[in-house]
Amino acid sequence: xxxxxxxxxxxxxxxxxxxxxxxxxxxxxxxxxxxxxxxxxxxxxxxxxxxxxxxxxxxxxxxxxxxxxxxxxxxxxxxxxxxxxxxxxxxxxxxxxxxxxxxxxxxxxxxxxxxxxxxxxxxxxxxxxxxxxxxxxxxxxxxxxxxxxxxxxxxxx
Length: 157
Description:
This protein is an alpha+beta fold. It is built from five helices and seven strands; from the N terminus they run βαααβββαβαββ.
């Protein structure tokens, strides 16, 4: 895997990136299958449709990280539906850069808030998101998933 220093920045994914989006997502979320007792929802996403809709942003060459960002202007927010960093790129600042990109993207769209959720059994995430300004909104069961929902209110720059 390429390190983040060798990446080309963060860019919209293209159809050619779909296999890499799937591979990075699977590599990032696979370790949670046994813990939560099912495949995490990002692994079951329609990656081709998300890319075609313009929701997916990738970083690295080859791809080592990605975001799925779904604008919801009618709700006044950006949904950070998924963030994935390949385990080989862990600890290189990829996740931090992706989260910063999400902030900038929301501001560019004029959306004052970002929402995201994580499975309640992915406790590592519960330590990460508050460090980046996210606060817990609620915990609820969505279908078969027990999720903690977060929000981040953005300040104007």
